[in-house]
Amino acid sequence: MVAFVLWGNVLYPHDKILEVGEELSYKVYYGFIKLGEVKFKISSYDASSKKYTATAELKNYEALPLIKINYFFESTMLSKGDSLYSYRFYSSEFKEKDINHIDYVFDYDKGVIIAKSDRNFQNEEKKEIKINEKKRFQDGLSLFYNARIHSLVNKNYIVPVYINSQESTVNYSFNMNKDVVSSDLKSYDMSAVKIIGTAHFIGVFGLTGEFMAWLSDDDARVPLKAKFNVSIGNITLELTSYKKKNWSPPVYDK
After folding, report:
1. Is 169 a domain residue?
2. Total structural domains in the chain?
3. Within a domain: residue 9?
4. Which DSSP category does 189 fall into?
5. What does the CA dihedral 165, 91, 48, 50 come to, rounded to 10 degrees?
6. DSSP character for 170?
7. How far apart are CA 234 and CA 248, in angstroms?
8. Cβ–Cβ under 8 Å, residues 73 and 101
9. Residue 161: which domain range?
10. Paired residues of 171 in beta bridges
11. Cα 197 to Cα 181: distance, rounded to the nearest angstrom
């Protein structure tokens, strides 16, 4: 059975976006140079609490000694109405001799974020950050899924985020006119809708500022390609493989 959410007078399916078991893998390019890869997975859903759990892995290629990126993220997300929001965010940054951990728990009822951090599971720091009880935040991973859900409606968004121990926002909007994406993923041109936005925070590898992405022009809204500003300049992500039931990127039809 397809789960629908009512926005205004229109019904939209969410289960095609938030499909447990979905796995999406991307290559990261700096110009023509392959920097690394990113893998996203929706690992579970608890129907009683309406919580999804998703993970992401970011790694650079070992052949690039000057760039060291090795992260693991896990986000527990609450599903409500026309969006998700972060309930808990956990990250591990793997360095040559250290592992840095961050753990955020969003207690909206009490109006606080409980933030913990440590290095090698030692010298843990813990603090409570007061927040506006009416705000519902995104973390660095939940944003990926929340934007896909929002892309089903043509409007502008200003989304609160909590990243790197700071409150901030990301702005984005969608162009519902059919666009085209070509890559090595498929031999045909793929149909897409375009998202453009601005991140008012500094994320992993210095990600900040303007960005754009192309999502599949269907109910699954799978990101096919994206461009971001990071510390070394502009990078591009391209979808290279996927696991998703009964789905293929839609064909672009002029």
Report:
1. yes
2. 1
3. no
4. P
5. 60
6. E
7. 28
8. no
9. 18-243
10. 158, 198
11. 18
Mean pLDDT by runs of 10 across the 254 residues of the chain is: 39 74 95 91 94 95 70 95 90 91 96 95 92 93 95 91 94 92 96 95 87 96 94 90 96 88
Taking a C-beta distance cutoff of 8 angstroms, is the pair 102, 91 a contact?
yes
Residue 85, strand partner residues? 78
**Alpha-helical segments (H) within 121-176:** 142-150
Q: pTM for the full model?
A: 0.90
Cα atoms in the Cβ-side hemisphere of radius 13 Å centred on 246: 5
Residue 45 in tokens? 């859903």
Measured between alpha carbons, how far is 37 from 25 in angstroms, rounded to an integer? 7
Helix spans in 117-232 (H): 142-150
CATH of the domain at 165: 2.40.360
Position 251 in a domain: no
Question: Nearest CA to 96 among 117, 65, 74?
Answer: 65
Classify residue 173: in a domain, yes or no: yes
Nearest-angstrom CA–CA distance, 37 and 142: 18
Q: Which residue has the tokens 């925070």?
A: 201
At residue 177, the 3 state secondary structure works out as: strand
